[in-house]
Design brief:
Phenylalanine Hydroxylase, binds phenylalanine, 293 residues, binds fe (iii) ion, five-stranded mixed sheet, two-stranded parallel sheet, 9 strands
Length: 293
């Protein structure tokens, strides 16, 4: 998502908007097999854990385990459903480029796939994270509108010097969001649904906090890029997420928050609606702590 250290100019062969051809014909059998392996692992853990919108999207797009999808065929289905399209990019793109794409209902996806001996850990989002993780949710009309509104909000935030605030919102919703449902907590965040271990950890571990979503609270909370999250925020529904974010003018919030300290990543705040008070045992058992955002 939001990239902090990237080249200012598109690399050779990329268009001014940083898009490149997917190069579908160039994938090797082994690369398709990596997708299939990852797909099968997620298919085993996601029923009953991923939200209905995600599972419905997987079906509607026919993102089944037959290898890396051809973006042309994928886009025929996706465009007919919500008007979104997937475009290939070489990796992380500059923030303004990223936001422009979202604001025009284009989702930039890496065209490369992770190495077969590094299924669980990747430094940069690959085609499995980007397409399997993000694209099913783009078939949901409400989430589709949220992502577009986020892109427009991102362009605005750049001008208001509030990129970090908005990056946190993306992280704790689009990437690592949970939502309530009649049947219990469900995952909608792409960073979770594309990871076998975090799909289980996010819902079942006693370690992380799970707290009701609050816009300003989220914008004051740093996030981890190197390990499982220490806190997850739970929206009541996608409708509620869209409504709160689009009906709120962020400019005065950015201003107010500039004078307030961050909330430590493992802390709970007085106004939190605490769904689970995590033990933080997992994070404490890991010596390192690298926080960003
Ligand atoms: N309402 C936000 C603003 O005033 C825009 C936005 C909408 C940002 C949805 C993120 C998500 O900037
Ligand atoms: Fe992502």
């Amino acid at each position: 998502m939001v990239a902090l250290h990237v080249m200012a100019k598109p690399p050779p062969g990329a268009a001014p908007d940083w898009t490149i051809p997917q190069g579908f014909e160039s994938y090797t059998e082994a690369e398709h097999q990596t997708w299939i392996t990852l797909y099968d692992r997620q298919a085993a853990v996601l029923p009953g854990r991923a939200c209905d919108a995600f599972l419905r999207g997987l079906d509607a797009l026919d993102l089944h385990g037959r290898g890396i999808p051809d973006f042309t065929l994928l886009n025929e289905k996706l465009e007919a459903i919500t008007g979104w399209r997937v475009v290939a990019v070489p990796g992380l793109v500059p923030d303004d480029v990223f936001f422009e794409h979202l604001a025009d209902r284009r989702f930039p996806a890496g065209n490369f796939i992770r190495r077969a001996d590094e299924l669980d850990y990747i430094e940069e989002p690959d085609v499995f994270h980007d397409v399997f993780g993000h694209v099913p949710m783009l078939t949901d009309p409400v989430f589709a509108d949220y992502m577009q509104a986020y892109g427009k909000g991102g362009l605005r935030a750049l001008g208001l010097d509030a990129l970090q605030r908005l990056a946190r919102l993306y992280w704790y919703t689009v990437e690592f969001g949970l939502m309530g449902s009649a049947a219990g907590l469900r995952i909608y965040g792409a960073g979770i649904v594309s990871s076998r271990t975090e799909s289980i950890f996010a819902l079942e571990s006693e370690s992380p906090h799970r707290v009701g979503f609050d816009l300003e609270r989220v914008m004051r909370t740093p996030y981890r890029i190197d390990d499982f999250q220490q806190i997850y925020f739970v929206v009541p529904s996608l409708e509620e997420l869209l409504l709160t974010t689009t009906s709120t003018d962020f400019a005065p919030i950015y201003q107010r928050l500039a004078g307030l300290p961050d909330i430590a990543i493992a802390a709970l705040a007085p106004d939190d609606i605490v769904l689970s008070h995590g033990t933080q045992a997992y994070a404490l058992s890991r010596a390192k702590e690298h926080v960003t955002g």
